[in-house]
Design brief:
The protein is α+β, with helices and mostly antiparallel strands and 374 residues long. It contains twelve helices and 13 strands. The strands form four sheets. A five-stranded antiparallel sheet has the order 7-10-11-13-12. It has a three-stranded antiparallel sheet with strand order 1-3-2.
Length: 374
Amino acid sequence: MPWLDSNLENPALRSLAQRIASELRLGDDHADAVEMLLANLQQAGQEPLLFRRAADAYAPSRYQRFGRHHILSPLWRMRGKYIGETKASAGHAPSAHALPFLQSKLARIEATAVFAEPIILRAEKLWNEKRAARVAAGIDHTDTDETKRMRDELRRYNAFMAQHRVVDAAGQRHSTHLARIFSQGSFEKGGRFYRASYQQLPGDERAKMTIDGQPVVELDFCSVHPTMLYLRAGLEPPEDAYAKDGFERGVLKLAFNVALNASSPASASHAVARSLRESDHQEPERTARQYIEAMPTLYPEFERQLFTGVGLDLQRLDSDIAAKVMARCLVASMPVLVMHDSFLVRRAHEAELRRLMTEAFQKVLGMPHVPQIK
């Protein structure tokens, strides 16, 4: 935070920001920052909004227009009446959330999230002594023809999707604006699409959403990263790469993908255990060690890829597939929502989405084989 621009062209949000800035006796130069904070709180919904107090945390850059004073001063003034704060703890940044009074006001305002910079290049993540990841900062970069193309395509997609209304079962409208985030200081790492509010919903809640009042269907590439590895090795992919006797499929899927992204078995085991604890899994540490230690035996064909960070290379491939699906849907004037390796469209467009997913996978991988699409 922040990752939304303040130029939202939303009169209702701007009016609310100006009223709050006036009430708190903030100068006119702070009203834009208040508007940006409100947009971020609206986008976050029920999720906490992380922020930093460090002096170098908010240096103006291509990713944000405001400096530290313009962000933190309104934040401190809004505490108590408009904003609640959760203080920092070991491994966790402080966070803010809209209090019920402000939340009710934001809920009555149409969500209009506009990214200052939709193509984000991040440095490597930092780790503290307790192995808790700190969010990597966005770093500056020199634009190339490719980054310019990606930015133009994503801005066209975001502008198109802003014309469509995505609503969940509770009647809450969701922002569809996406940013494409690359990792480890390289445009060859990561590149997945994030930050639309519907991406925070669990699968059963996404299934209840509507696009312009019409029910949706979600289609998913099954075992997409194992399939990519099998194909790149010249091997025939199994029907389900995560189906192994004696292993719980969901935990195995988690452990395998963590093992592809981690730099060592120890860091992979820590990450899996953390995820299992968050889902209230019994004996998370023992289970994590068991599954991570079993990786080379379960997947001997990928032993050289495990614990190398190759997962970020695969994310670049699956994000390129997503970008092609989005671009083709845009040409067809077909609204589509993106969940990395799955997509949601109106039910009437299911067959067309399946065809576009198949063609995009074949185009990016350069091979005729396609994972199961369910």
